[in-house]
Design a protein that fits this description.
single chain; about 130 residues; mainly beta; 7-stranded mixed β-sheet; 4-stranded antiparallel β-sheet; about 50% strand
Length: about 130
């Protein structure tokens, strides 16, 4: 049974930092590209960042470029999202997602390309 378990969310002041982690089990982690999505109240879920199987390719939403960094540790079956210079508009539930691929480099941005999802972790940024 595949499980993606997010952690690291919480309440932080604007300008602060948080590091999210997503621990994966029940799947061949190194065969999956990984991503973080988020959904704010009343909004659609959107891609935040994605990383290829190898970790060599990444993609980011324009709104987080230069502030957020996605990385992965295939030995630990874990993907991370380092979030710096947080803004109130970053407040959302953050979801980890995984999709299987034979490509080392592909980094899909569409939610439909992701097969497995975590239950989410809340990030709240106060002004």
């Amino acid at each position: 049974q595949v499980q993606l378990v997010e952690s690291g969310g919480g309440l932080v002041q604007a300008g602060g930092s948080l590091r999210l982690s997503c621990a994966a089990s029940g799947l061949a982690f190194s065969m999956h590209y990984m991503a973080w999505f988020r959904q704010a109240p009343g909004e659609e879920r959107e891609l935040v960042a994605a990383v290829s199987r190898s970790g060599g390719n990444t993609d980011y939403a324009d709104s987080v470029k230069g502030r957020f960094t996605i990385s992965r540790d295939n030995a630990k079956n874990t993907v991370y999202l380092q979030m710096n210079s947080l803004k109130t508009e970053d407040t959302a539930v953050y979801y980890c997602a995984a999709g299987i691929t034979t490509s080392l480099l592909v980094v899909p941005t569409s939610q439909s390309k992701y097969d497995y999802w975590g239950s989410g972790t809340q990030v709240t940024v106060s002004s």
